[in-house]
Structure formats: C-alpha cells, structure tokens
C-alpha cells in the first residue's frame, strides 16, 4: 500500500510582525525568511517524518528547485513532481505576529496549472487500496477525487483552504476528512463539532471524520465512536504548518493501525512541537523527536 500526497508546493516568505497589517497601514517587519511550504509539501513531509513511505505529486516552476530538494532530503519520492518552465511556483506571503499566529496570502502559480493528462499519468502508478491525501491548493481537485475513487484508492481530504469549488466536488468519495471546525461547518452547515460529526456521518456514512478545535484539541469519529484529545502546552513561535503536521501524523497513525487515542496524542504532540519553532516544513518533528519529547496536556 502506497501513500500519495497530491498537492501544493509553495515558496513561503515569512515576515515576523508585531501585529497583522491593518487597512491603510504600512508595517515594518523585524525579520524575514524563505521556507519550503505548501500544504501538500508540508503534509508529505509530516507523513514521512511520522514513519510512512510517501510519494508527492504536484508542480513547481524553475524557481522552486529548493522545494524539490527539501522533499528529496526528507526521502519523499518526487518522480511525480512536474516542472513548468513558464509559470512561477506557488508562493505564500505569511505574517507571523508576536503570539505566533499567522495570516497568509497565497499565489497559486504552478499549483494551478496541473493538467488532466498529468493527473492520469500520476494515478497510473497507483492501485486499488493505495491512499491519496489531498488539500485544496491545487486545481482539478474534482477530477483527481473522481479518478482516484474510480481506481479504488482510499481518498483522504484536508479541505483547506475552504472555497465554493471544493464544495462542488463529490465528497461522498472521501474516506477520511481531516479538517478544522470552520471547514467542517462549511461542509455541513453545523458549528457545534458534535452536531457537525453527526450531520457529516448522516451525509457521508462511509467516511471517518477528524475535526481539530484549536485550543480545545480534536475529535475523531471512527465510524462508531467519537474519541477526544486535548492539546499540549508550548510557547507558540509560529503556527504555520501546525495543521499540516497534525494531518500527516494522523494519516500515518491510521495507516499503522495505531489505537485512536495514540494517533491523536502523537498528532497533537507533533503539531505542538511544530508550533514551538519557526517555519513550515522545517518545523515538523521526526517521530523519534515526538516520542522523546515530554509535554504537558493543557
Ligand atoms: O498550512 C501552511 C501552508 O499554507 C504554508 O506553508 C503556506 O504555503 C500555505 O500553503
């Protein structure tokens, strides 16, 4: 069984600021850094660092060579990453404030020039029972979901960032939703996470559902029981890729058939460690580091 992450690769320009820039304001940044990012790349690296063998599919421009190098360094298989000579790689402009919170402007670039022929070429290398993990930063998501499902692949979706286009995909083909409470509410119209889980289960009875709740931890409905877990206490330096770390670790735990509470604990701890340091992909800890780190539950 293989894991394919088909998603975005972004050049992240990260600016440390006192507060997020306001309308009409010009704001100086105390420091700037360039990091590898993109929800696809981050989740592929998180899944790999958690212990899974991972294939990454997506597209970069000639300016994105270091993104490919980062994936290769992490031992992610990159033969399905295409290069577009005529478009810039996707990039993100990220403000991180003094509390470690972020806000992001995204330019899709090559993440949005993926063709149906390229998708067919990638999926030809995967079979029934293989897992595909998707987010919503690339084009043709509806086509990928339909084709992967048609092949009998297990489709996991992190519906982030949420938009109307995502809602027009056939979400009954999703086996695992891994999302935050806002995304869950957008899909099912319910703000209360327990009601959202019940509503989603009614709508998509075959799907398993993970909802992250910020400071209130996470809930996982495995088709029968809802499991709950809190978050670990750390000083937040940069929350970028915290959700991606959680998603990658969660998926790896499912693939390793770990117990639900162990999966949730590993995912929560890995994402807390990622929050405690700067960057996106660079901030994701290895499984050994997660196991060796003692943190208090909040
Ligand atoms: O989830 C964090 C990621 O969102 C960043 O790395 C940025 O590239 C945006 O895609």
Describe it for me?
The protein is built from ten helices and 13 strands. The mean pLDDT is 96. It has a single domain (3-292), classed as Ribokinase (UDP-N-acetylmuramoyl-L-alanine:D-glutamate ligase). It is an alpha/beta fold. It has helices at 39-50, 65-73, 116-123, 141-150, 164-167, 181-188, 193-203, 242-255, 260-275, 287-292, and strands at residues 3-6, 10-16, 31-37, 54-61, 77-84, 90-96, 102-107, 131-134, 154-157, 176-180, 208-212, 218-221, 226-229. The chain is globular, with a radius of gyration of 18 Å. Alpha-D-ribofuranose (RIB) binds at residues 8, 10, 12, 37-39, 42, 92, 104, 106, 137, 240-241, 243-244, 280. Residues 8, 10, 12, 37-39, 42, 92, 104, 106, 137, 240-241, 243-244, 280 line the site of alpha-D-ribofuranose.
- Distance from first to last alpha carbon: 36 Å
Average pLDDT, to the nearest integer?
A: 96
The fourth-level CATH homologous superfamily is Ribokinase
Q: Give the CA-based shape.
A: globular
User: What is the topology, as strand order, of the major beta sheet?
Assistant: 5-4-1-8-9-10-11-12-13
Count helical runs: 10
CATH class: Alpha Beta
Tell me the number of strands: 13
Could you tell me the strand content as a percent range? 15-25%
Give the structural class: alpha/beta
CATH level-two architecture: 3-Layer(aba) Sandwich
Say what the CATH topology is: UDP-N-acetylmuramoyl-L-alanine:D-glutamate ligase
Unreliable spans are: none
Radius of gyration (CA) equals 18 Å
What is the number of independent domains?
1
- What percentage of residues falls in helices of 4 or more residues? 25-40%
Mind describing the biggest β-sheet?
Answer: 9 strands, mixed
